[in-house]
Amino acid sequence: MPSNDLVPFDSLENRLSAIPFPYALAVSRPLRSRSPGQRVELFGDISQVFPWASVSKLVTSFATWKAVEDGLMTFSDPPGEPCPPGSTLADLLGHTTGLAFASNHLSARLRTHRIYSNRGFELVGQMVEKATRMTISQWVAKTVTEPLEMTRTQMPGSPADSMRGTITDLLTFAQELAKPTLISRDMWALVQQPWMPGLSGVLPGYGRQNDNLWGMGIEIRGRKTPHWTPVNTPPYCFGHFGQSGSFLLVNPLTDTVIAFLGAQPFGDWHKENWPDLIETALAR
């Protein structure tokens, strides 16, 4: 299990001590020396189970990639109704079917706007269930949480937003995202590529983006503004945040990850503090 054996700088200590609700923060990056391994830092309530909200989509996406790699389905498989004709699994993962956030209503034509959709990820779950002949929670357990020994994480409901777990489990998954062992390099390279780049759309909580960049289930930082990450975040970094006040951010070139969970739902505090918190933690 990761351990926190380093003393935080005063600036990070001050930021963390001012957080007005229970939280947990994890940072992992390669050691600065030539020795192999990761430098891991954990802060806050590291044993508490927090809701992950839409960070769940990263786990659902990973389990879906595994089903594709195992030959059980393809990214070009059609989801059928309520998606428009020509839609594919990739469109659901990349939020380009035009489905509304939480209903079967079509808010846009196929591949003309990026409409962020929980309903779309529920359909992803249904497609995975049909292909694997397991419930989505069973498939997630078989392909992600059990192999990674994420023993305090569960998906009790929707594959879009129902996961709950500890920061140590989220960190374990984040490290797998940064340097996968459960899927091939070819698959990993594919899902990191922007899906339908250049599409405008609303990033929940942050408004319309001219290029609301997304991969196959992962939000790619790109040049979005405003955003939940610092302005100097490299555009190829990816992750997700959730309305529970959670986020996971990965720099795939440096194998660096940072994750946050908290007891307060996403709101003004997170908008005001997340970018500085991320920048301060990663500057250590």
Can you give me a brief rundown of this structure?
The chain has 284 residues and is an alpha+beta fold.
Looking at this protein, list some descriptive labels.
single chain; 284 residues; alpha+beta; six-stranded antiparallel β-sheet; two-stranded antiparallel sheet; 31% helix; disordered N terminus
Largest sheet: 6 strands, antiparallel
User: Which series of helices and strands comes N to C?
Assistant: HEEEHHHHEHHEEEEEEH
What would you call the shape?
A: globular
Judged by helices, strands and strand pairing, the structural class is alpha+beta
The Rg value, from CA coordinates, equals 18 Å
Q: Give unreliable regions as ranges.
A: 1-9
H/I helix tally: 8
Into which percentage range does the β-strand content fall?
15-25%
**Approximate helicity band:** 25-40%
Strand order of the largest sheet: 2-1-10-9-8-7
Termini separation (Å)?
21 Å
Write down how many β-strands occur, each being a DSSP E stretch of 2 or more residues.
Answer: 10
Kindly report the average pLDDT value: 94
Description:
With 284 residues, the chain is of the alpha+beta class. The protein has eight helices and ten strands. The chain has helices at residues 10-17, 56-69, 89-93, 118-132, 136-145, 167-178, 185-192, 268-282, and strands at 23-30, 38-44, 50-51, 164-165, 201-203, 207-209, 219-220, 238-242, 246-251, 256-262. It is globular.
Indicate the topology.
Elements: H1 10-17, E1 23-30, E2 38-44, E3 50-51, H2 56-69, H3 89-93, H4 118-132, H5 136-145, E4 164-165, H6 167-178, H7 185-192, E5 201-203, E6 207-209, E7 219-220, E8 238-242, E9 246-251, E10 256-262, H8 268-282
Helix pairs in contact: 2-4, 2-5
